[in-house]
């Protein structure tokens, strides 16, 4: 079964849920706005996909961080993990764990390929 991570009220998430439903793919949803996210999971994502793929620098959460907070987040893996677990909106959405790979961000072709 797929595990989908994200925030329920997000346009990318709504597109993802609609597509998964259309494809009749079963999934478990983890809302990290409500339930948080642990550092170990974030570390796996960063190790597999890299900071550029996981960190959402385009959102308002990143822009609201002070330059010092941004620099601290980018200075080390530990700093980035701390930022992502503290400010979960900094994580791109969705992150889909397929058991074989990760899909980061709404990628219709990759999701359709799961069928």
Summarize the topology.
Blueprint: E1 2-6, H1 11-22, E2 27-31, H2 32-35, H3 39-49, H4 51-54, H5 60-64, H6 67-75, H7 77-86, E3 95-97, E4 102-104, H8 108-112
Parallel strand pairs: 1-2
Antiparallel strand pairs: 1-3, 3-4
Short description:
The protein is built from 8 helices and 4 strands. It is of the alpha+beta class and 115 residues long.
The average pLDDT score comes to 96
Number of strands: 4
Give the count of helical stretches: 8
The protein's oligomeric status is: single chain
Rg calc = 14 Å
Biggest sheet strand line-up: 2-1-3-4
Low-confidence stretches: none
3D shape: globular
N- to C-terminal separation? 12 Å
Order of helices and strands: EHEHHHHHHEEH
Sheet having the most strands: 4 strands, mixed
Based on secondary structure, the structural category is: alpha+beta
Work out the helicity level. 40-55%
Strand percentage lies at 5-15%
């Amino acid at each position: 079964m797929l595990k989908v991570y994200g925030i329920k009220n997000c346009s990318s998430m709504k597109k993802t849920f609609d597509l998964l439903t259309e494809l009749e793919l079963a999934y478990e949803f983890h809302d990290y706005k409500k339930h948080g996210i642990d550092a170990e999971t974030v570390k796996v994502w960063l190790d597999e996909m890299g900071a550029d793929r996981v960190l959402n620098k385009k959102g308002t959460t990143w822009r609201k961080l002070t330059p010092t907070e941004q620099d601290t987040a980018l200075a080390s893996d530990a700093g980035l993990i701390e930022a992502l677990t503290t400010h979960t909106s900094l994580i791109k959405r969705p992150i889909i764990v397929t058991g074989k790979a990760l899909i980061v961000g709404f990628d219709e072709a990759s999701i359709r390929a799961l069928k």
